[in-house]
Amino acid sequence: MKQLIIILLSFLILVGCKERGVNLQLPYEGDKLVLFGQVNTTDTVRIEVQKTYPPTDKSTYIEGIANATVGLFDEHGFLETLKYHSKGIYMSGSGRKWLSGSRYRIEVEAPGLPPASTALEMMPTAPVVINYEFGRSIDSKFNPGTPSKELIISIQDHLNEENYYMVIVKRSIGKDTFGTSIFDLDRPMDDFEDPCQFRYRSNIVLSDLCAENGKIILRKGVELNDQFGKEVDWTALDKVTVSTRQISKSYYEFCKTYYTESELITAFMPPFPRYTNITGGYGIFTGYNEITKEFILKK
Predict the structure, then answer these.
(1) What CA–CA distance (Å, rounded) separates 254 from 247?
(2) pLDDT at residue 191 tops 50
């Protein structure tokens, strides 16, 4: 009896482990337009027009939609038809620039694809930075022993308004530019979500939720690691550039739903939708206005 049970179990294991092909039909609602524009309010009007592709089967990928009709509107009505430039980029033929404080939307039509349009988007004004401080030497929280400096940014927030900001820190040595490791000096480094700020592709994104008396103060540590993956010209100018942006609410929401690297590689991470303000398609249309400050480390 014991031998019979062993034989039956062995048979079930062999049968159960046999590979079988599974035909799974992935949902796809058909090709749609993808509109992308994270625009600086000081730039010439432009937007990128692409399309979606099926998740399976063979597809011929193209460098953007070249035969679309792209209309630019403000809150009062039609302004102009944008002209095709290259690789899906459409630009103002008149050299029109975005205007801070104005609202714009874009409507796109292309043969064989459903029409798509953006929401009416406000172009932000420039942030008001009261003061920068950069210079006090500190130790790194990430990598003890790594030379670092304290960075303090004081932002004057607009009272009675809902405002959003982004801070980008880069280091440049001659013609080469690098990202920097930034750590917080006011809050503990733990796994609890910070209600006032979060990271988007290593940049700091924040709302005015934690502003006090109309002022936002950021205290960060900036690592100045000299171990780069390529040769640099150490005789060239060495500097840190801090870009402070005022961003639209749509830009903030888009950053908030960005998939991080760890989320992409986690097999059983529940998916969640990316924020979009496009009707009839996908993508994002947002604006920002920025000011920059340079700190020279070595001339």
Answers:
(1) 11
(2) no
pLDDT in tens, 134-156: 989 999 988 888 999 999 999 99
* 294 — pLDDT class (breaks 50, 70, 90): very high
β-strand partners of 90: 47, 84
CA 115 centroid distance within chain = 25
Q: Residue 274 and residue 281: Cα distance in Å, rounded?
A: 13
d(CA 12, CA 25): 29
21: number of Cβ within 10 Å: 4
Averaged pLDDT, 116-120 = 96
Q: Cα 153 from chain centroid?
A: 21
The tokens 């949902």 sit on which residue?
27
Spatial distance between the Cα atoms of 13 and 26, rounded to a whole number of angstroms: 30
Hey, how many other C-beta atoms are within 10 angstroms of the C-beta on 288?
A: 22
Distance in angstroms (rounded) separating the CA atoms of residues 210 and 165:
12
Residue with tokens 């043969």: 111
Q: Do the beta carbons of residue 277 and residue 248 sit within 8 Å?
A: no
Distances, alpha carbon 8 to alpha carbons 19, 169, 250, in Å: 20, 65, 61
What is the dotted CATH code of the domain comprising 33-122? Answer: 2.60.40
Q: How many whole angstroms separate alpha carbon 55 and alpha carbon 41?
A: 35
* HSE (side-chain half, CA atoms, 13 Å) at 254: 21
Tokens at residue 28, please?
């796809």
CA contacts within 13 A on the Cβ side of 8: 5
Tokens of 269: 């991470």
Closest CA to 43 of 1, 87, 15, 85: 85
Provide the token pair at 16. 């159960």
Listed by start position, the domains of the chain span 33-122, 128-276+288-298
The pTM is what?
Answer: 0.82
By CB atoms closer than 10 A (0-12, 13-18, 19+), residue 171 is buried
